[in-house]
Design goal:
By secondary structure, the chain is α/β, with parallel strands linked by helices. Helices cover 39% and strands 14% of the residues.
Length: 396
């Protein structure tokens, strides 16, 4: 693996943003922006045309990576939050019904909460003690007014991957779009939107796709049409007063993040070269070492960390230390041990309400990435053991 130079910081916040990036991503972004740092597709000179070619090549690359069939329906945006807002507001109107879960990130929760205040009926399905939603319960909540089912594929708090294929089949049978948030799973698990039954699949580039921040988007199935909720420049047919109807322009607005698209291109190619299954296997091996090491420490509580037969999961792990709030543990990991992690509610308040950790200011989350090593895991376990000893002394 083309691994960047080792840094003194042990980075275990890959659930938020993967870091470092592969060297190929840094090199391509720098070279591309120096050569083609112009507005793509807006004029006829060579630099502009070549910049546009990279946008379209990345569109095709991601379409295939996600199991799509029409590259024009691969739409670029800022991130998954941007895409989820376009999808959710583009599908639901007052009087409609939607089904979602307690595992959602605020990128879905907040648009749905807003729409609920405006007259959309929303059903919220809880998860079980292992961290999984029952597909039959989601399906049972569907009714003739259901216009969208919104599901977080992989939890950014507890790492469980929801069994969405049965839900997707039921949605296809009923003509209901399944909006799938793959922020955590794109690049970590193989994704085939046809096999999953997804109608809209929303992704971000800065996590396991190994791209930069500020780039993401969605793939919209040919059977799904989204209502336009924005309008603006496309660089195409500028004399037309209304925003263009055809994809990808239908859901793209203004100058795209060209350096981000270039970095995403390099990141996806790197992931594809390494192999999604191989990357996930290595990360889960480290996750198990981390889980087992933390589980053996007196005073450490893990959340939904047991592996369930025939159920998938990703390499994030949440925990708390008795006698200490999560934020203090995170500070000690950073200042005293040089370990970066994420603490708090992780923009997923319903998960923490279910776990009871909302009353404890959330949890500490480790996120294992492709450049972590066994030595990183061992250092993290030792650090938490030292911190837990301090917690026990405070409780005593």
């Amino acid at each position: 693996m083309n691994q960047p130079a080792e840094a003194s910081l042990i980075y275990l916040d890959n659930g938020a943003t993967s870091f470092p990036k592969p060297e190929a991503v840094y090199a391509y972004m720098d070279a591309f922006y120096r050569r083609y740092g112009v507005n793509p597709g807006r004029s006829g000179y060579d630099l502009c045309i070549e910049a546009g070619d990279v946008v379209e090549a990345t569109r095709r690359l991601l379409c295939g990576f996600l199991g799509g069939t029409d590259p024009n329906r691969l739409v670029f945006g800022y991130n998954a939050t941007d895409a989820l807002n376009l999808a959710i507001f583009g599908l639901l109107r007052p009087g409609d019904h939607a089904v979602t879960t307690h595992l959602e990130h605020n990128s879905s929760l907040r648009p749905l909460w807003k729409l609920q205040q405006e007259g959309v009926d929303v059903d919220w399905v809880d998860f079980d003690g292992s961290g999984y939603v029952d597909p039959d319960e989601v399906i049972a909540r569907m009714n003739p007014r259901t216009r969208a089912v919104v599901i977080n594929h992989g939890s950014n708090v507890i790492g469980t991957v929801q069994p969405v294929a049965p839900i997707g089949r039921a949605c296809r049978e009923r003509g209901i779009p399944l909006v799938l948030d793959v922020s955590q799973t794109a690049g970590m698990l193989p994704l085939d939107m046809e096999a999953l039954g997804a109608g809209v699949i929303c992704f971000t580039g800065h996590k396991s796709l190994m791209g930069p921040m500020g780039i993401g988007g969605m793939y919209v199935h040919p059977d799904v049409e989204l209502r336009q909720v924005r309008a603006g420049g496309t660089g195409v047919r500028s004399a037309q007063r209304s925003h263009l109807e055809e994809y990808p322009y239908r859901m793209e607005y203004g100058t795209p993040n060209l350096p981000g698209i270039a970095g995403l291109n390099a990141g996806v190619k790197w992931v594809r070269e390494q192999g999604v299954a191989a990357l996930h296997g290595r990360e889960m091996d480290l996750w198990r070492r981390l889980r087992d090491g933390l589980a053996a420490i007196d005073g450490v509580t893990l959340y939904c960390a047991d592996e369930v037969l025939d159920r998938e999961r990703i390499s994030v792990l949440s925990f708390n230390v008795a006698g200490l709030v999560a934020g203090d543990v995170g500070t000690m990991l950073d200042v005293d041990h040089g370990i970066a992690c994420r603490t708090g509610l992780h923009c997923a308040p319903m998960v923490h309400e279910h776990l009871g950790t909302d009353r404890m200011h959330g949890s500490v989350r480790f996120g294992v990435g492709p450049f972590n090593t066994p030595a990183h895991v061992e250092a993290a376990v030792r650090a938490v053991a030292d911190i837990a000893e301090l917690g026990r002394s405070r409780e005593g």
